[in-house]
UniProtKB/TrEMBL annotation:
Listed NCBIfam families: oligo_HPY
Domain ABC transporter residues, every copy: 17-258
Matching InterPro entries: AAA+_ATPase, ABC_transp_ATP-bind, ABC_transporter-like_ATP-bd, ABC_transporter-like_CS, Oligopep_ABC_C, P-loop_NTPase
GO biological process assignments: peptide transport; transmembrane transport
Pfam families in the record: ABC_tran, oligo_HPY
Organism in which the protein naturally occurs: Nonomuraea wenchangensis
Family: Belongs to the ABC transporter superfamily.
GO MF annotations in UniProt: ATP binding; ATP hydrolysis activity
Protein known as: Peptide/nickel transport system ATP-binding protein
Annotated keywords: ATP-binding, Nucleotide-binding, Transport
Amino acid sequence: MAGSGNAHLRPRDEVLLRVEDLVVEFPAGRAGRTVSAVAGVSFDLRRGETLGIVGESGCGKSSAARALVQLPPPRSGSVLLDGQELTALRGEALRRTRRRLQMIFQDPISSLNPRRRVRDIVGEGPRVWQLPGDRVDEVLEAVGLDPGTAAERRPHEFSGGQCQRISIARALILEPEVVICDEPVSALDVSVQAQILNLLEDLKARYRLTLVFIAHDLAVVKNVSDRVMVMYLGKVCELAPGGDLISRPAHPYTRALIASIPSSARPAETLITGEPPSPVDPPSGCRFRTRCPRATDRCSLEEPQIRQIGEDHWLACHNPAPNH
Ligand SMILES: Nc1ncnc2c1ncn2[C@@H]1O[C@H](COP(=O)(O)OP(=O)(O)OP(=O)(O)O)[C@@H](O)[C@H]1O
Ligand code: SF4
Ligand SMILES: [Mg+2]
């Protein structure tokens, strides 16, 4: 984590992707101003885990995810895949390495070319990458589609959930090690969401994938993730195994997210209201301080650094909740 030198790793965990001090900024319209979308985010992705990333709209989840695959590259920071620095790669070397990290997006229908047949959509990657053999039927079957009937159809003939299966097949055929799922079920009917989540779980085991799972809904993230990282306005607030995070949340923002889950036993006074501040002009010190019920003077003067508060439990807050 930021400033920790990633000391939060347990020795038995193999790091597949190490992210250090990731910064993503966008021009903000007026000359010289910037949107601070991701402001120094660090974490390790361990081989074989599912890391959930959660936080409200605009907190930088997608910007961070895209920076991992260098689309576009971050303003600064380091992204190491198996020890190889992705931010230093260019051209063919970057292209080749990028195949190992695939993304799945929220809106499957718009990400599929409507004029092409599923066989061509899914088979395009291997042609471009010159991968041997035709595995289209195998991956269609793996994502729960009947190759015999599905392959010759076009995207509009499928439901939203089936289109998401097609996008997953399109990613899977490139034999990625990491699949970054950016709100993969948010646009789907509730009845279909569980099917797609189960599918991702099955594929993870079958193809030995490592997953990053992004959502704004903690209730969804906690069920599918080994560890959960909570983000607020471009910063990491807390990172812990899902069970720990839910049972012993330390950051006031995490507590608010938990309190907003309908079945939560957390008291409603931990809820926060209103909109987050603009990332063009973020608050000094702790970025959460303008909405934090526990804020003190120190919070506006000094940015809280990530520190370890339990086994594999990390927190950035000067004044955490009393159960810690
Ligand atoms: N291409 C862009 N140009 C300018 N600003 C951008 C761009 N992409 C994202 N932003 C801004 O960066 C911030 C982070 O956006 P991002 O899409 O990463 O958030 P998010 O957590 O994925 O949100 P959501 O849950 O709505 O998908 C937001 O303030 C957003 O408006
Ligand atoms: S550092 Fe201060 S403002 Fe930020 S979350 Fe902790 S108590 Fe709240
Ligand atoms: Mg997003």
